[in-house]
Amino acid sequence: MKSPLRSFNIYLCAAAVLLAAGCGTRGLSPKKEYTSLRVYLEARNGARTGAQMVQVAGTPMYVESEPFLTEADVNMARLVDYADKTYAVQVTFNDHGMIVLDMTTSSSKGLNMVIYSIFPPKGWKEPKSEDAFAPEKTGAGQPRVSCWSATRIKSGISGGTISFTPDVSHEEAERIVRGLNNMVSAINKMSH
Question: Domain spans of the chain?
Fold first, then answer.
């Protein structure tokens, strides 16, 4: 039985492969790490609306088929370390992202923002097996290249910043932040 999650991950990981493999084109350096970020809204009516089913920390969730924010809307990212040894990725959005975040979250209280990140390390090569794209099937010796996270929307977010705790190691969270900031820098260079 083919899972919608698997085909969804394959589609998104293909974008990462293009970023990692085709870095020489369009101003991306093959010597840097790049991270993509997709922020989806939890689907109100689940499968009935054609939403995609994903697994977030082992919990199935339905998300809208298109993200409402991407790395193109990011101004900067940083890793926040807390005194209790936990950590979170904090993302600040640009002017466009701030407006979209505020409008979307103001009208979606009680739903989840579901965040997907692809963070292949420098020099990462596409696995030969299609199954290797699924984060839960990365396999021994293969670095993890993607993760899902969810954050409940309690009120509209007008400040343009979100924090989320991905289910990754501290080292992987650092890689997500480094790659996202590298991506923002590359996007800014391309737009000037």
Answer: 4-191
